[in-house]
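**Protein of interest**
===
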Amino acid sequence: MDIFTWRARRQLFYLAIFTALALAVLGGVIFWFLAEPTCFDGRKNQGEEKIDCGGPCEKKCAGETENLVILWSRAIKTSAGIYDAAALVENPNIFAGVQNLPYKFKLYDNRNVLVGVKEGRIFVNPAERFIIFEPGIATKERIPARAVLELADEGEISWLRIEKKTPNFLVEKKTFFKDPSPFLEVKARNQSLTSFSEVYVNAVIYDKNNNVQAASQTILDAVEPGALRSVFFTWREPFEREAEVIEIFFRTNQTKF
């Protein structure tokens, strides 16, 4: 009786294992053929151009997008041994943006020695020129001669299809005072039909030779449709040359869904 019981239990054990494996295989087959296609299932199954990208998926496939263009990058002295770094970047892609783009500023002296580094992340909206700004980079006694902006490699960037309308801000007035320290007031109106909860505003000041003298950034918490807002920028030390051109950049994060 004991032998029969032991054999019966062993047979039931093997039967249970076989049944579990059969159910797992059956479930996988059902999932593969009957599960609703998504953009995250590791399969090209709903008109995608490649696996989980292109077609109906928000993610753009590699090769569909153009590279970001760095138009200029500068190291800007703010006080002894402290520099800001700023760069103007252009996204030529009309319907593609990036939610989280890693970048790195590197400051070099005139002997090409690295004297400062600052890393960060930023969103990229479709078809825009925008400022990447990093304040307060310490270089001690070294004086930067140039700033280099490094962006993530194209293969590491996750592009998304974005078709939102670009916010429309109109600068109505710019007032600049150089004494006793540089001060800029910008009055701008939200001409969009929607409100924005987080608006990034960058100011860039050039001299008569179009050299960048200063840059700064602030964030407006909320801007209602039609609202006129004042934005203020200050700098601690006088500029070396006269401010001739003032450029203002407005942007909101269109990559949020």
